[in-house]
Amino acid sequence: MDSKIKRIYAPMTESAFYILYCLQAPQHGYGINQQVKQMTAGAVSISAGTMYGTLAWKFKKVIFPCFYQFEKCTLENVVYRLDYQNKRQDSNYHQIFKDYGWEYCQSFLGWLYFRKPITTENTICEYEIFSDDSSRIDMLEHIVKTRMLPLLLIFFACLLPNLICAISYNSTSAFSLTIIFGALTILYIILITYCGTKLHRIRSLYDNFSK
After folding, report:
1. Could you tell me if 132 and 168 are in contact, meaning their C-beta atoms sit under 8 angstroms apart?
2. Core-most of 3, 23, 113, 196, by most CB within 10 Å?
């Protein structure tokens, strides 16, 4: 065994074994997670924090529109969690997370990224930002109000009227606009339907847990 690999991965954890096994062929993070789930019949799930920490990479920042940048680090096992706040948070907000062992990484489009080292002293509950389902439901409702509703407003106030106007005119330029606004309308419908369905499923899940 290579001395560097032996120094880092011996003794090997279960997560490291599955990750390295999947990397015998070129693979990406999501593919590794899906392959491990398939191999273990869903018994083992490799989170992003576990995967990149095991490979000695840690999250650095998000670059617009949605590119994630990582950097080399010492081998560590961490968990990442996100909070959603559609406004700038003061020092008290960040201090609360810091008091509970969370390291603030970055804020991006309302999403705040935190990470926390995994230790044997902490329980599973201590790796969750939200301690109860009602708090999770409040966050989902906040996402709907500040993200989904503006998307619907843009759709009904801008895209749909322009699509109707483009269809009503009979000209070459109108035909081109019809294609453009038609494509945007289809994209918006898919996006709104997909996000709305996902949020509804998560909300139903938390509602069932809280009963």
Report:
1. no
2. 113
Helix (H, G, I), strand (E, B) or coil at 74: coil
User: How far from each other are the two terminal CA atoms of the chain, in whole angstroms?
Assistant: 53
Q: What CA–CA distance (Å, rounded) separates 189 from 13?
A: 44
**Is the link from the previous residue into 11 a cis peptide, with omega within 30 of 0?**
yes
Rg of the chain over all Cα atoms, to the nearest angstrom:
22
**SS3 label, residue 100:** coil
pLDDT value at 77 more than 70: yes
Q: How far apart are CA 163 and CA 183, in angstroms?
A: 10
* pLDDT tens for each residue of 120-176: 766 667 778 887 778 888 888 888 888 888 888 888 888 888 888 878 887 777 788
Contacts of residue 140, Cβ cutoff 8 Å, sequence gap at least 6: 199, 202, 203, 206
- 192: tokens are 């709104």
The structure's pTM equals 0.65
CA–CA distance, 202 with 171 (Å, rounded to integer): 46
Q: HSE, CB side, 13 Å, CA atoms: give it for residue 129.
A: 22
Which structure tokens are listed for 77? 């096992």
